[in-house]
Amino acid sequence: MPTTQIKDPVHGYVELPDALVDGVVDTRPFQRLRYVRQLSATHLVYPGANHTRFEHSLGVYHLGRTVFENLRRQPYFARGATTDELEEIQRTLECACLLHDVGHPPFSHLSEGFLDEGILRERVADAGLVDAFDRAGVGGAPLRSASPHELLGCVLIAEEYGDALRSFDVDPFEVCAYVLGYSLAYERGEPWQYGVGAQLLHSPIDVDRLDYITRDNRMTGAGVLSFDVDRMVDAYTAHPEAGLALTEKALSTIGNYLEGRIALYMWVTQHHKAVYANRLLQELLGEYERVTGESPVTVDGVLSRELDDNAVLERLKAAARDHPDSTLASMYDRFRGRRFPATCWKHRIALADRIGGDLDDFTAWLTEGDDRLERLLADALDVPVHEVWIDRSYVPAYDPDELEDIPIAYGGTTRSVGDWGLYGDRAFDVPIPFVFVPDGTKRRAIRVLREAFGREVGSDGTVPSGT
Question: Of 140, 228, 264, 467, which residue is the least packed, with the fewest Cβ within 10 Å?
Answer without folding.
Answer: 467
